Amino acid sequence: MSPAQLQRLLPFVGHFMARIIHQLITTGTCEQLQCFRQDLPVTNSRGDLRPNTAGGATRALFTKLPGVGPIMAEKWFKVGFRSIESLLEAAAADLAAAPAAPAAAAARSQIPYLARSSSSGSRLSKSCQQDSILPLSREAIYSLNYHKDLFESMPDDDVTEMRTEVLQTLTAVTPGVTDGWIMQTVGGAARGGAVHDADWVITNNKCDTKLLDGLVTRVYDNMTRSGRLVSQDEGFCRVQVGKLVGYKEKARKDLLEKTDR
User: Fold this and answer.
1) Are 83 and 73 in contact (CB under 8 A)?
2) Radius of gyration of the chain (CA)
3) Helix (H) or strand (E) holding 70
4) Which of 3, 162, 203, 234 is in Cβ range 3.0-4.6 Å of 22 for a Cys bridge?
């Protein structure tokens, strides 16, 4: 079936989309996907290049690193970085020349020796070599150091172990509350595809809500002391408490403003 036939048969499908559907059916891929995979700019239905689509695959790879957002990923791509390995090499050189806090110094020391002492010569462009990738946040440094672990799928046994540890900690930090905890797995772990973390929604329908005040902080402090978590000034760890309350208030104000218009 030709693209023209598909366009006639499928409602709300124009020539451009019909061509993409035809390519997917006949080849299993399409021009836009291949451009993305090859870091080439993607065209729209008029044949014009879509802005900011060059380097799509590489930038998507970089943003898989916790602590690295779209802006930093785009900067890295524009100056010539095309792999995690090239980032490690450049980061090692930059960090070696930069003053660092104790936590950053510890992270620097963990950068693989091969990346710190490579004698093969950089394959990056001159503009890339001249453009420092600093400042790197502590989160980005740790993400680069442990990128292999972060990119690997998390075994089910690890998810189970994490769940058990959290449940034990919840009991330990709420004296008198021995049951009623409900941990609902959400996100990738719920779909059987957890990558570098697992997410849960935790509730308890059998205890006084006052016992839940400061619960996140107590759980974090307990797990840090036991060595199950790293502290906020040592590694990649962020703790947010009470953020939902502020969000709900902002959402309420936005809704009122829209109603008054």
Assistant:
1) no
2) 24
3) helix 70-78
4) 3
Closest of 79, 105, 103, 102 to residue 92, by C-alpha: 105
CA distance 183 to 201: 6
Angle, alpha carbons 33-147-74 (nearest 5°)? 50
What is the pTM (predicted TM-score) of this model? 0.63
Report the alpha-carbon distance of residue 151 to residue 162 in Å, rounded. 18
Report the distance separating Cα 174 and Cα 167, nearest Å.
11
Residue with tokens 């034990």: 168
At residue 41, what is the residue type? P
- The C-alpha angle with vertex 191 and arms to 190 and 197, in degrees rounded to 5, equals 60
Q: Alpha-carbon distance 96 to 108, whole Å?
A: 8
Distance (Å, rounded) from C-alpha 52 to C-alpha 209?
Answer: 48
